[in-house]
Design goal:
Blueprint lengths: L1 H65 L3 H21 L17 H15 L5 H21 L7 H23 L15 H43 L10
Helix pairs in contact: 1-2, 1-3, 1-4, 3-4, 3-5, 4-6, 5-6
Length: about 250
């Protein structure tokens, strides 16, 4: 019996560690993507800062050719360059978790990236079951981005996904966060708590996003099969020996 208890304890430990590893893997992937986005933003900021400093330097040289600027003019140019650099560095800072900023002309790929970043930054404000659902949504975003990036923003499936990622799911999370913690455990008229509403909404959104990704992928598969059948019928049967055309 002692051996049975030990084996059961080991089995439970294995299940827990596997679940933790799976969750850490998804969360780690999301963190890595967020770091890549932040690093890209830092690179763009550095480029803007460099361009601003060069512009101030060129302007200073031009003014110096026209008229002497003296030591005070040089110091003013340095102060202007430092001020512009500080302003440009401060602009990209994102402390608050806000709805993804989306315009109609934003491509589908960047749309998914902004939603991915929003999920990563808002995750810690949610209860553990909702965090697990957020991780499941984050896990499907790479393949969703891959298929969405190949279709137009006005594609009906893309429009469904864009509304979910820019309005409905972020709106659900934001409204939940706005409710004071003391009221989240209360049961509504249908016998459901806010936590359960949040979990159900996230799960429904994940299911829809997964369906969009699968539908678009099936469209790609069908297009490939059609192209393959065309080539086979056009060139394979008419020229079975592979002889060059006359």
């Amino acid at each position: 019996m002692t051996t049975d208890r030990v084996e059961k304890a080991i089995a439970r430990f294995d299940r827990v560690t596997q679940a933790l590893d799976a969750r850490a893997g998804t969360g780690g992937d999301a963190a890595r993507r967020e770091r890549q986005r932040l690093n890209a933003g830092l690179g763009r900021t550095a480029a803007r800062v460099g361009a601003a400093i060069v512009a101030v330097g060129v302007l200073t040289i031009i003014v110096g050719i026209v008229m002497p600027i003296g030591m005070f003019g040089f110091l003013a140019a340095v102060a202007l360059a430092v001020g512009l650099a500080a302003l440009l560095i401060a602009l990209p800072v994102r402390d608050a978790v806000t709805l993804p900023s989306v315009t109609p002309d934003l491509a589908n790929g960047p749309m998914v990236d902004r939603f991915d970043s929003y999920l990563f930054r808002s995750r810690k404000a949610l209860p553990a079951p909702a965090q697990a659902e957020i991780d499941r949504i984050s896990g499907l975003l790479p393949r969703l981005k891959e298929v969405l990036a190949r279709v137009e923003t006005l594609d009906p499936a893309a429009q469904d996904a864009r509304r979910l990622m820019s309005l409905h799911l972020p709106g659900l999370v934001d409204r939940y966060v706005n409710v004071p913690a003391a009221y989240r455990a209360e049961v509504d008229g249908e016998g459901v708590t806010l936590d359960q509403r949040l979990l159900d909404g996230l799960a429904a959104g994940r299911t829809k996003l997964d369906e969009v990704a699968a539908a678009l992928a099936r469209g790609d598969v069908a297009a490939f099969e059609t192209q393959g059948r065309f080539i086979q019928s056009r060139y394979g049967e008419a020229n079975p020996a592979g002889d060059p055309p006359a």
